[in-house]
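Batch manifest, entry 17 of 40.
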Amino acid sequence: MQTELGEPSSSKRYAAPEHWAKLQHVIVRLYVEENKTLEEVRQHMEENYDFIATISMYKRQLASWNAFKNLRFDEVLQILRLKRQREAEHNKGSVFYVRDRKVEMDSLQIYISRNPSLYAKLESGEKPHSDAIRDVSCRTPAPSESPSDLPGQPDDVKEKAPATMTKPINELHEDLLRFLRAYMTQNFESGTWVRSGNHCWSSKGHRGPAELLKSLLDRCMTAALSVGRQVEPVAIRHALDAPFSLLIRVFKNPPPETIPRILCVAARLELIGRQEIQGILLQFCADLAKALYGRGHSLSAFWQSFLDLPAAERSRAIEVVLTQCVSEFGEHLGIGHSLSTEVFLLYFDAVERQKDPKTQAESLGNRLSKLDDQNIDPSIMAMLRFEHALATCKSALAEGQLDKADDVLSQIDAATLSPRDDSFRCVWLGYIRWTKGDITAAEKAYKDSVQAAKLTGSRDCVCEALFQLERFYLHRQEPLQAEGIRAERLNALRKLDCITWADHQDPPMENDSETGSKVTIIRIASDASSETWHPSASTIMIEHHDLCNEVSTSV
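Output type: structure tokens
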């Protein structure tokens, strides 16, 4: 009988304190230097040393020995303090050690890019914990060693890259495109990216990395919409921790559409005014590529070249790169291939969606005319047709042709759409029918939108659909129905951990009902005070409601 997974029963004789002391060097070597899991350490010690202990015992002992694998926030803060001090006093390079273990610079760069609040703490003069001050040391590197190359603060970076920044913009774009072409050619010709029928994927993970990439970038956008601009940097870091940890897994085996998908999200972040989160995402990609593949790799060079661009030029650079991506995938896979069409849709989302609906419809119609239903993934074709129908619908609305706009969306086979697209289609149908005065049909469309959203498994999608239905009831002056929908929406919002914060302090702990936490409510619609109401996703309203008051009044 075992007390917990992988742990021996109480009938066995556990190691005494003197046994721990005697074998400390072996345990630390296995766990820290050889990077074994606790379960692997436990099995090794039991099989080779007849040393019996539970996982919990190992955790306590390793903590008491300060034997940790991963860097800690205060330790990195102390490294930055020492680096600044040594550069100011002696202008020397440094090699850093934590508990006598050399710190790898690539790992340190990744940690810093994931924790932007480090520099805020550094600037404020905050001192790390005394344990970190004791455990961190540094020295001048020997000639055979490389000094630390930590990323500087934003202003420092601008000062340290004059050669690149003085290049003409067209040359910077040429650098980007050259590295992009080299990266794609290398992967296609080496067989890392494999074409199979109407699909193309990484040979190591098939569709797994691609689906993971979609999921984590959706979570990045949810975090960006959810974290108010006035919150502390730690809140932003906390919201991005989960998707960024998944991004590491993706970069180890990147699917073919990695670059266009990330740049599409970067464009959306700029559109909603979250350039600071866009910068964190791009910096993390650059640091991650260097850590995994080295500075000379084409993927590392691509992301670094992108970061070297002036911030004001990034929007244009995204358009240039995405346009080239459409061309590259068309050349390698053919214009009618599913992935080529998917990359075109990413380009459309980032670049052409901002144009007038008639221009959008013409571009999408031109793409549709070049495709064959038999040679493309049905879900990709359905997505392209839906985008074309939506652009045609918007164009008809602009011309006051409500019946045409209704017909265009009604004729789409909902069974071919993803639940998210179907939910969005129903929202537009609800708005059109509300405008036409068909209240019963409008109400049904809004309810259908909620049902479709629930099939996505995405709480943020559900919250958006519920908000549209709630606003419909409010404009219909049906407060009881609106209040019931609002209660359901707030309950869904409370389950979105990344948007629950305590003002001006660290994110609240779970089950902490005494913090006076706030719920950030994301409203995707027009201003509530405006005379006309449009259910577009272009306007974002953020309200703060006291959590306790909201729960008591809405449940």
